[in-house]
């Protein structure tokens, strides 16, 4: 069982370019999340999805979009990257139907926008 | 809104020392509380959790007690090891529809042999 996989592991991107970060889970969790991690700020939620076909905005959604066409995949797209989007991005999933659901995290994608 | 305030680091200890990392929170209702650990170059892993007042979460020698009266969830370990060197994040999950986690800023722990 792989859990959550993310791709790419790292990426250097020119400002203005489009980029999609991939996330796949094999735990059949209904809920998935995208966070960004910045030094001194902890992790902040970008977007989430409670179930396939639905998405919602988190704390810092501007400049990002997501889709949830099926249970397993939750890609994050930067339509036109800017340097302030340089960060480490973590995908997570959980079985949110359980009252004590735990979020499981992927290994992260380190993105640098120049 | 919900928030988590975590002891600032970095924290440097000698092996076998006692560890406390303070965490306090602000939230409406009855949040669930978590400690996550991030080892170098890796994603976050759940260390322990507590879902109601006075619950004690424990794992790998770490403990934290959900104190509603002081809105705290301090992380403790009686004797740290070099392998405990990592970044520790306190987090809460409120009762909103997103069921998102709200994280503290993280505390870097370095344990020296």
Structure notes:
The complex is a heterodimer of chains A (114) and B (113). Helices cover 0% and strands 47% of the residues of chain A. Chain A is mainly beta. In chain A, the strands form two sheets. In chain A, strands 2, 4, 5, 6, 9, 10 and 11 form a seven-stranded mixed sheet that branches. In chain A, strands 1-3-8-7 form a four-stranded antiparallel sheet, with no helix packed on it. Chain B is mostly beta strands. Helices cover 0% and strands 50% of the residues of chain B. Chain B is built from no helices and twelve strands. Chain B has strands spanning 3-6, 11-14, 19-21, 23-26, 32-38, 44-50, 56-59, 62-65, 75-77, 86-93, 101-103, 107-112. In chain B, the strands form three sheets. In chain B, strands 2, 5, 6, 10, 11 and 12 form a six-stranded mixed sheet that branches. In chain B, strand 10 and strand 11 (101-103) form a beta hairpin. Chain B is globular and about 45 Å long. The chains are: A mainly beta (114), B mainly beta (113). Chains A and B meet through strand 5, strand 9 and strand 10 of A and strand 6 of B.
In summary, what is this structure?
The complex is a heterodimer of chains A (114) and B (113). Chain A is mainly β and 114 residues long.
What order do the helices and strands come in, and which of them pair?
The complex is a heterodimer of chains A (114) and B (113).
Chain A: E1 4-7, E2 10-13, E3 19-25, E4 31-38, E5 42-49, E6 56-57, E7 64-66, E8 76-78, E9 87-94, E10 104-105, E11 109-113
Chain B: E1 3-6, E2 11-14, E3 19-21, E4 23-26, E5 32-38, E6 44-50, E7 56-59, E8 62-65, E9 75-77, E10 86-93, E11 101-103, E12 107-112
Parallel strand pairs in B: 2-12
Antiparallel strand pairs in B: 1-4, 3-9, 5-6, 5-10, 7-8, 8-9, 10-11, 10-12
